[in-house]
Amino acid sequence: MIEAPWIETQVITSSEPASIKDINNDIERELAFYKQALEGAIEGRKNVITSGVPFSRPDDYFAEMIKSDVHMTRIRQKLVNEEQSIKASEEARRLRELKKFGKKVQVEKIQERQKKKKEDLEKIKVMKKKRKGIEDTALDDDFEIALEQAAADDRSRKRQNTGKNGKRVSKDTRYGFGGKKRHAKSNTADSSGDLSQFDSTNGKSGWKASMANKKRKFTKKRPGKAKRKSARNKK
């Protein structure tokens, strides 16, 4: 019987049988299988090299993909969408943090202004008390007048700051100041009965106006329908 070369059968037998004390022990059983497989792989590689058969894939070898291009494109798009979603959520979280920080800064600024205002009022009260203690009533009155004048100036500045801007003034000049505009030129009962502005000359002047008045005065009035009918019957 002729034995076939090893490369045709590629049969490898381990040098020692697997000895497992407890077959129900998964770790021990898998470790024995691993040792047998490792020994067979090492021995098989030596035999292949001895046989002179190439078994390594060349660097320029391109194998056909198991997955189609459409499937891989769909997977790639899914990964891109997930990455964009993660970036969007991170950006939204960053904006929320900035908004919270901005509100915090705004509240701190308002509190600082209120604190400064309170301190200024306290200083004014202390100054008034000192003035009352060391100066006479006239000086105290002058100080009160100065305080009132400063408050009035402050109010006037605020009033000027809250005035209308140029754009608002321009629109008011062009369109008015609001209110009802529909039917503004319509007649009313009083305006319909008011004939004070009626011009009997119909805009004419001089002898034309006098002639128009005479013509209107001496024009014969047209008889009614019944009279015209009776006149035709008489004829």
Automatic annotation (TrEMBL):
Residues 150-235 are annotated as: Disordered. Residues 186-204 have a biased composition (Polar residues). It holds the Pfam family Ebp2. InterPro entries: Ebp2. Residues 157-168, 213-235 have a biased composition (Basic residues). Its main location: nucleus. Belongs to the EBP2 family. GO terms for cellular component: nuclear periphery; nucleolus; preribosome, large subunit precursor. Keywords: Coiled coil, Nucleus, Ribosome biogenesis. One of its GO terms (biological process) is rRNA processing. It is found in: Nucleus, Nucleolus. PANTHER family: RRNA PROCESSING PROTEIN EBNA1-BINDING PROTEIN-RELATED (PTHR13028), RRNA-PROCESSING PROTEIN EBP2-RELATED (PTHR13028:SF0). Residues 72-127 form a coiled coil. This is 2045_t:CDS:1.
